[in-house]
Design goal:
The chain is of the alpha+beta class. The protein contains 12 helices and 15 strands. A 5-stranded antiparallel β-sheet has the order 1-2-3-4-5, with helices on one face. A 5-stranded mixed β-sheet has the order 12-11-13-14-15. Strands 8-9-10 form a 3-stranded antiparallel β-sheet.
């Protein structure tokens, strides 16, 4: 049976070998990224001994990769089609990978996920939005920007190239940390977290432009982990590589999507009265609930990471997971 590398090489056409192992040719992806056709051989592809593939273009900034143990990303699938592999073939190849790594019930589960995620279509960030790193590199001294930087840093965020800010004032976006929503490496929405406490009840803590039934942080879930952590807040999910339904409520579509991942589900509720909704969902679906042994003043994962660090916090969540429904409910009541 042909390997993925052999299939790609058969369709790739004439290439040039570089000293670092890359194969180069004119880019077939530039028109997807709004660039004129590449005529200078600025596309590169490299194959790793373990079966991995990485592609890149210096002209249109295209990047994609395939890692053994994962399925194709949207961009990688598009690359395969652009070199002449039929879309149906790409889909079948991807499904074979899914079956290989996720088990015999993959077809039904994949269909559930595809039906839900079909509504997660490409979106745009607010106008003038740049990464916080870009604003800092440009020497921005806007007071609102500096407040957002301070807030992000206090929440344990150090990857400023992954979060955004805009001077746009509608929705008070200039006073918010903008968190992009991605699915399969495609931007599908965002939320803006107000820095501090909103001045009135008419101003929401989160300004959401979110697709229906969206689950934040799916792209960071490793296929090699046999568990998935469901947190309440977006920043809590970011802090511990979990997912979030953007609050303490989770609907049936989101539950179905999580179930389709075939992983042990660990719910990490915020330790306040609102967290009981997630505890009841966990009990209904036989998910675990985690009550880590954190200091009393720590009420969520984001704060725990600030105190203990990411690795220690994640380990504490996993080790404290309780799969007994009755026990989880008792522990919840004891905390309140």
């Amino acid at each position: 049976m042909d390997t993925l590398e052999n299939i790609i090489r058969d369709h790739l056409g004439p290439v040039q070998q570089t000293r670092k192992g890359w194969l180069s040719r004119n880019c077939m992806m530039c028109h997807h990224h709004g660039e004129s056709p590449d005529r200078r051989g600025r596309f590169g592809i490299i194959f790793s001994p373990d079966g991995g593939v990485a592609t890149s273009c210096f002209n249109c900034s295209h990047k994609s990769k395939f890692v053994p143990g994962e399925t194709f990303s949207k961009e990688f699938s598009l690359f395969l089609q652009e070199i002449g592999i039929p879309a149906r073939t790409v889909k079948l190849m991807n499904f074979d990978l899914y079956k290989q790594y996720y088990g015999k019930d993959a077809l039904h589960e994949l269909q559930i996920a595809e039906n839900i995620s079909a509504k997660w279509t490409p979106a745009q960030l607010p106008s003038q939005a740049l990464t916080m790193q870009e604003w800092a590199d440009n020497g921005c001294t806007d007071r609102n920007f500096l407040n957002v930087v301070k807030y992000a840093y206090e929440r344990g965020i150090r990857n400023f190239e992954q979060f955004y800010w805009t001077p746009q004032t509608n929705g008070m976006l200039n006073k918010r940390l903008i968190i992009p929503f991605y699915y399969r490496n495609t931007l599908v929405g965002f939320t803006g977290r107000f820095v501090g406490t909103p001045p009135s009840k008419q101003i929401t803590k989160y300004y959401n432009i979110s697709p229906p039934d969206f689950l934040y942080n799916l792209d960071r879930q490793s296929p090699h982990n046999d568990y998935i952590i469901v947190a309440e807040g977006v920043l809590d999910a970011y802090a511990i590589h979990g997912v979030s339904a953007q609050g303490n409520e989770i609907n049936e579509s989101q539950i179905a999507f999580i179930q389709s991942l075939n992983k042990q589900v660990i719910v990490l509720p915020d330790f306040d009265k609102d967290g009981s909704a997630l505890v009841e969902v966990a009990a209904k679906h036989n998910w675990a609930v985690s009550f880590p042994f954190w200091s009393n003043e720590i009420k969520d994962a984001s704060k725990a990471v600030e105190t203990y660090g990411r690795i220690a916090t994640m380990l504490s969540v996993i080790e404290a997971a309780d799969y007994d429904t009755f026990s989880a409910r008792v522990k919840w009541r004891m905390k309140h």
